[in-house]
């Protein structure tokens, strides 16, 4: 088993065999997971019901504005991506993650690489390890990337690439529509939207990344006859036909974070696990996003909070694991082009003052790294400030007023 110090040096290159685990080792046991209550975010949950936006609704823009200001996230329906396509994507991802570790490791992310199989990027900043596997991909480079896993480019490769390309085409069209809906939700008029697009080419230059998550303990490496074990937590004898996390209460699928880009469209399997953080009153809490068939979850990221001058908020979220059922999610991230400076849009700032200085996505990632190093990864225990706080402009000084960028005031 890797030691925490080894994991810190290069977490992407060391894998603990979750499948063989009979208990959650210290390397994977997180503190403070139960500090805040978890509440249901399903319909009927009153003010904790996760907002739902139907893109076909003529009042969709108002619903987007409300959800983006108050939650930084919403469930999206009426988006036009066929449900059967989502099911094929999920089945394809499940098949890919079910491959032997040796196949997946050929695509392992190296050090600071943006793409590859392994733990997500933020794993670098924590001494504990997440109870999941991930794979970050550029949708415009799918085939060469996936050849690492399937060098013979056989049937499974062609099928997976085919379904992912079909999905990507749909998602890109949806992302463009959603960006326009966000701009309408901000209150921009038709000519203002055309002006923003002409000046900044916001939609046209948006960059995309797909990140696949597998929240699972696979026992497939064990011969079928040995897939019977006694659960160390409940001490019941169970037949492990399905993967099981020995103690989901100590493990964490995805460490709480805000996404850094503009927004993410998240496809999740019919197993809940995504938690959105909400501040009190009445109390700080985690809201569990219900698994709604066919719906996508939209999460606002930090650079969108900057672009909208703080009007639309990025959402702090995490993913938990459960004892019985594997869970798959796919996050499709949209962000600015790597060289575009993002600052508050002048159409949003109006006669006011920009709340943030302009910076590029790579520059923001460097600020976030610094914030994480100072304890700013946790909303609750901020010592040195979150990354967003670090790039905010103090209203009392002139700092950043002339920090104009490609996408800014
Ligand atoms: C485009 C990106 C966003 C992301 C970093 C990345 O370069 C590729 C993976 C993305 C992801 C997925 C899991 C959570 C997250 C915080 C992480 O560690 O890797 C996000 C990153 C992000 O939003 O900053
Ligand atoms: O699995 C989930 O529901 C969340 C995943 C996530 O936050 C991410 O990939 O950025
Ligand atoms: Fe996320």
TrEMBL record:
Cofactor(s) needed by this chain: Fe cation; L-ascorbate
SUPFAM superfamilies named among the record's database cross-references: Clavaminate synthase-like (SSF51197)
Single GO molecular function: metal ion binding
Pfam families noted in UniProt: 2OG-FeII_Oxy (PF03171), DIOX_N (PF14226)
BP GO annotations: gibberellin biosynthetic process; response to light stimulus
Key word Oxidoreductase present: yes
Domain named Fe2OG dioxygenase: residues: 227-336
Domain of life of the native organism: Eukaryota
Keyword RNA-binding: no
Keywords attached to this entry: Iron, Metal-binding, Oxidoreductase
Family from the record: Belongs to the iron/ascorbate-dependent oxidoreductase family.
Name of protein: Fe2OG dioxygenase domain-containing protein
Lineage: Eukaryota, Viridiplantae, Streptophyta, Embryophyta, Tracheophyta
């Amino acid at each position: 088993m890797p030691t925490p110090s080894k994991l810190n040096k290069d977490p992407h290159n060391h894998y603990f065999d979750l499948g063989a685990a009979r208990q959650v080792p210290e390397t994977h046991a997180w503190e403070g997971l139960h500090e805040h209550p978890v509440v249901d975010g399903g319909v009927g949950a009153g003010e904790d019901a996760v907002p739902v936006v139907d893109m076909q609704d003529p009042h969709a823009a108002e619903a987007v504005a409300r959800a983006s200001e108050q939650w930084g996230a919403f469930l999206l329906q009426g988006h036009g991506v066929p449900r059967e396509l989502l099911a094929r994507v999920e089945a394809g991802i499940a098949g890919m993650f079910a491959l032997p570790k040796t196949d997946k490791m050929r695509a392992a992310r190296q050090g600071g690489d943006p793409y590859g199989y392994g733990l997500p990027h933020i794993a670098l900043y924590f001494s504990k390890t997440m109870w999941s596997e991930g794979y970050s991909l550029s949708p415009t480079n799918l085939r060469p990337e996936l050849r690492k896993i399937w060098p013979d480019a056989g049937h499974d490769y062609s099928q997976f690439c085919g379904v992912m390309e079909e999905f990507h085409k749909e998602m890109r069209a949806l992302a463009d529509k959603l960006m326009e809906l966000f701009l309408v939700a901000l209150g921009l008029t038709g000519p203002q939207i055309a002006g923003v697009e002409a000046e900044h080419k916001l939609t046209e230059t948006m960059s995309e990344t797909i990140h696949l998550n597998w929240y699972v303990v696979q026992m497939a490496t064990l011969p079928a006859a040995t897939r019977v074990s006694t659960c160390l937590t409940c001490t019941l004898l169970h037949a492990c036909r399905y993967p099981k996390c020995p103690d989901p209460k100590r493990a964490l699928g995805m460490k709480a974070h805000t996404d850094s880009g503009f927004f993410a469209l998240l496809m999740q399997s019919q197993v809940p696990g995504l938690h959105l953080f909400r501040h009190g009153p009445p109390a700080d809490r985690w809201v569990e996003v219900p698994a709604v068939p066919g719906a996508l979850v939209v999460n606002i990221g930090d650079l969108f909070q900057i672009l909208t001058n703080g009007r639309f908020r990025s959402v702090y979220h995490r993913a938990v694991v459960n004892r019985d059922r594997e869970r798959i999610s796919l996050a499709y991230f949209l962000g600015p082009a790597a060289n575009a400076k993002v600052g508050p849009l002048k159409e949003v700032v109006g006669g006011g003052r920009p709340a943030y200085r302009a910076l590029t996505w790579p520059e923001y990632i460097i600020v976030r790294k610094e914030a994480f190093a100072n304890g700013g990864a946790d909303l609750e225990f901020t010592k040195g400030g979150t990354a967003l706080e670090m790039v905010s402009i103090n209203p009392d000084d002139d700092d950043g007023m002339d920090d104009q960028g490609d996408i800014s005031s």
